[in-house]
Specification:
2 copies of one chain form a homodimer.
Chain A lengths: L4 H14 L2 H7 L6 E3 L6 E2 L1 H12 L5 E11 L3 E14 L2 E16 L2 E11 L9 E2 L7
Parallel strand pairs in A: 1-6
Antiparallel strand pairs in A: 1-2, 3-4, 4-5, 5-6
Chain lengths: ~140, ~140
């Protein structure tokens, strides 16, 4: 049981790094859940989601690092937009790619649960900066 | 003032179709807002967001149609994952592309407001089906 959305998110990335399907599915809510992987089809529902993670984990653990989270909270809901840095070791050396990822968590009687994961390829300069309001600039 | 998240979303797409910056910015919350356009950088904050929409609208209206919404609601929050069908008329004819889009709305004293828009390119078969639990299948 996750007592904060951050705890649930930490378990989500730990499950990816260890290819632990059981841990992954404990992060997700039981009923209404939606997942969009980069380049993939929209996956809807707990069982369909379990199948797609099982396929992904069949290739082994994923070297993923969540970076630069921005968090917007509401009463029973927490919206996280972060950068996933994914590293793959290839015969040509280590390759790194970035995704923008939206994770949404809802509070339920059984703690905080993920209800949405939407990840998409980000430009390489995503790691360097956001387009952001500058509080020190006159408007 | 939007009394439902659906009303706010309708205004969002109407603003895109008419390149109406004023209407677009009335859809968004005043403070914490995040926007990710396909292939673009993460945009954070109301003023930065206004600049990016202004740039987009400088090229004129966008022929966009929201399709197949899936909605997960919480107390003061509504998460919509839909398909945007975007049509562009070119000298070579009409071209259509699809995006998966997550829109999140929060309820505020001034009605429902968009706090997140995350759109990313979707495969062409996205319009045909989701990977979905089949209630008529044995588990």
């Amino acid at each position: 049981m996750f007592t904060t959305p951050e705890e649930a998110e930490q378990a989500f990335y730990e499950a990816m790094r260890t290819a632990d399907l059981g841990m992954m599915m404990r992060v997700w809510a039981d009923e209404e859940v939606i997942c969009v992987h980069p380049g993939g089809l929209r996956t809807v529902g707990h069982d369909a989601l379990q199948s797609t993670w099982q396929q992904i984990f069949a290739s082994g653990p994923i070297q993923v690092m969540p970076l630069q989270p921005m968090i917007i909270t509401s009463v029973m809901s927490s919206v996280h937009v972060l950068i996933e840095q994914i590293t793959v070791d290839t015969p040509q050396g280590r390759q790194t790619s970035l995704c923008y990822t939206t994770n949404v968590f809802h509070k339920s009687p059984s703690g905080w649960k993920m209800i949405l994961h939407h990840a998409s390829q980000a430009p390489q300069e995503a790691g360097l900066f956001d387009l952001q309001d500058r509080p020190d600039t006159l408007h």
